[in-house]
Amino acid sequence: MQEFLGHIYFGNTILEYLVCLAFFIGGVLVVKLFTTIVMSRLKKLASRTKTDLDDFLLHAVDTKLSSLFYIGVLYLSIQRLTLNDMMARGTWIFFLLFLTIFGVRFLLSLVIYILDLYWTSRDTEESKKKAIRGILTIFKFAVWVIAVVILLDNLGVQVSGLIAGLGIGGIAIALAAQAVLGDLFSYFTIFFDKPFEIGDYIIIGDFMGTVEHIGIKTSRIRSLSGEEIIISNTDLTSSRVRNYKRMEKRRILFKLGLVYDTTAEQLEEATSLIKEIIAATGNAEFDRSHFCQYGDFSLDIETVYYVLTRDYNIYMDTQQDINLRIRKEFEKRGLEFAYPTQTVIVEKNEP
């Protein structure tokens, strides 16, 4: 028996192969015991907590790292054998490759879960979720590129020349597509800084409308007349944007002109009357009303009030209601509105 166990094949005895096999089987049983008994108990404990992070971590370990545990047991078992340089390097590359794949998958799932949980709790719109998925795709690609470079460096590959070549190529691509990259970075600026969102009514220069889509390169705005306006993200971030959706209340200033025959008492009555009308109007908040100046052909009254909503239709309804009531009340009290007039004096010279 000892003679049989002492036979050597590929530099190792049969006994060493059996020990390696026993070590592998024992390691597999330990991993299986851990994944079935220990993990199940941990999951029960995690289900009793208020947070979902521990549930996710246990699920990620069970789905993303359990296979890596078996590969680690296989690698440690093989290390008990005497291997030539080629076999030793092959097993090391095999283990390092799987370690990189499973490790990156686990870290990505953890980071994406945290970021998705943070953004989803703040934004529930489907369009924003699509934008988040697009950003996460770019993030995944960047992480995998970095992981591959680190893997090649650990395998002894000279990556400095590769990185330099990629850097020169990246500069060339950036110069050739600087407009596209500028719009891409502007998209990130819009997404993170949020100067406006889908559904906001904005004004950019001579263009105005409701934001319907925010893309990686361009954004689309629906104007009041119905046509679609397509503007690059770079133009949006470099322009002054007026966002009316975030306006809590609208300040209104208007002037009324009364004829010069109006008495001082009537002017006082007019300002008080305007105050009463605005104060009694819904969605309106009175600020001031004053006889402000002597105009060219009228005595001018300047009034300021606030409409307590951002809705333009409600603002126009409120303004119309105030204008009609002022007109009616002024007519009742004989307060006459002024209109442009000129007095021409003709002198007749006697011969």
Report on this model:
The protein is α+β, with helices and mostly antiparallel strands and 351 residues long. The chain folds into three domains: 2-122, no CATH class; 188-243, SH3 type barrels, CATH 2.30.30; 250-332, 2-Layer Sandwich (Alpha-Beta Plaits). Helices cover 59% and strands 17% of the residues. The chain contains ten helices and ten strands. The chain has helices at residues 2-5, 14-47, 53-78, 85-122, 126-154, 159-176, 178-193, 233-237, 264-279, 312-332; strands at residues 8-9, 12-13, 201-204, 207-214, 218-222, 228-232, 241-243, 250-258, 284-294, 299-307. The strands form three sheets. Strands 6-5-4-3-7 form a five-stranded antiparallel beta sheet. Strand 4 and strand 5 form a beta hairpin. Helix 9 (264-279) packs antiparallel against helix 10. The longest helix is centred in the N-terminal third of the chain and has 38 residues, at 85-122. The radius of gyration is 39 Å and the shape is elongated. The mean pLDDT is 79.
Into which percentage range does the β-strand content fall?
15-25%
Elements, N to C (H/E)? HEEHHHHHHEEEEHEEHEEH
Give the overall form.
elongated
Share of residues in helices: 55-70%
Mean pLDDT value:
79
State the total count of DSSP E strands.
10
| Biggest beta sheet summary | 5 strands, antiparallel
Q: What's a concise summary of this model?
A:
With 351 residues, this protein is an alpha+beta fold. Helices cover 59% and strands 17% of the residues.
